[in-house]
Amino acid sequence: MAEKNLIELSLLENGLDFIIRGIDELYELYDDIEYQPYINPVSQPQKDYKYGVLHLFSGFLLLLKERLSHHMPELIFQGKMEEVKRKLKTNKELNTVTLDEALERLEIGPQVTFSASDLNVIRKIQTFRNRFEHYKFLVNKLELNKIIIDFIELIDRFLIKELKIDITSTSFYINPEIRAKVLSIESVYKRMIDKRKHELITIGERKLKKFQRNRENILQQLEKQAYIAYIDEGGIDDITMMCPMCCEDTLIIYGEFAGICSNEECNNYSLLKTCDRCGQVTTGYEWEEKWCDNCHNEIQRMADRDD
Ligand SMILES: [Zn+2]
Ligand SMILES: [Zn+2]
Hints:
Layout: H1 2-26, E1 27-30, E2 38-41, H2 45-71, H3 81-89, H4 99-108, H5 116-134, H6 141-161, H7 176-213, H8 215-232, E3 240-241, E4 251-252, E5 272-274, E6 281-283, H9 293-306
Antiparallel strand pairs: 1-2, 3-4, 5-6
Helix pairs in contact: 1-2, 1-7, 2-4, 2-5, 2-6, 5-6, 6-7
One zinc ion (ZN) binds at residues 275, 277-278, 280, 291-292, 294-295.
């Protein structure tokens, strides 16, 4: 029994350590006496991204093993259960499971499953990790930044839901060291989100300037493109939606200038995402769950009816 606890603690602690180290590699934290530490983009992203992603991935795999070991400690080792048990008795070296084996065993044993979009994030991180490990490659920083944020958010949810580590909860005891580690992951996550917001706003400002310089041409092109897409693909939905600022049907949701309001008096830029309920384009941050107005109203009507 004592041995079992030892394994569990080291899996969880090691997992958190790897994740924190990964974040350290990705983001430089500047401690300021007066202000909260803040993140600056690293000067050599290639190198830091590499070690950052390698560590995040290893940390996550350890957390998956931690969850498996809650169900049955032997599950973290490769091979048939009988064999594993026999080898453990004779103190033989055993390999632990790979990501795919861990995911499969989590599903069969404790019935832990990930949503399709979570699996997509996990697979993308795995792909980046494999590439980083085996060869040099050019990385799309924007795409990788987004996936890393999604991945850390996923890790955060996994800690709460599957490992029952909710640092905001006071209802049960959490080892203070673990609490501190999780807290530092969460605070970094929040700061990463802020940084990502800045990035997106800068991209928006650039897009808007480009649009304003060539407004008429771009609008004409857009209509042409939409028409071609309409003929070729048998119909695309509207190329605009209602702008949340001016309330005109002028917010472009198609093509390179998606997010820009074409109303000359408005000049709004909105971030776009797909509604988490129906898949329609709506405004909002990509990492936040949000429903479109239609879905929102529909749910409201249903709730009103139930009252
Ligand atoms: Zn507008
Ligand atoms: Zn919707």
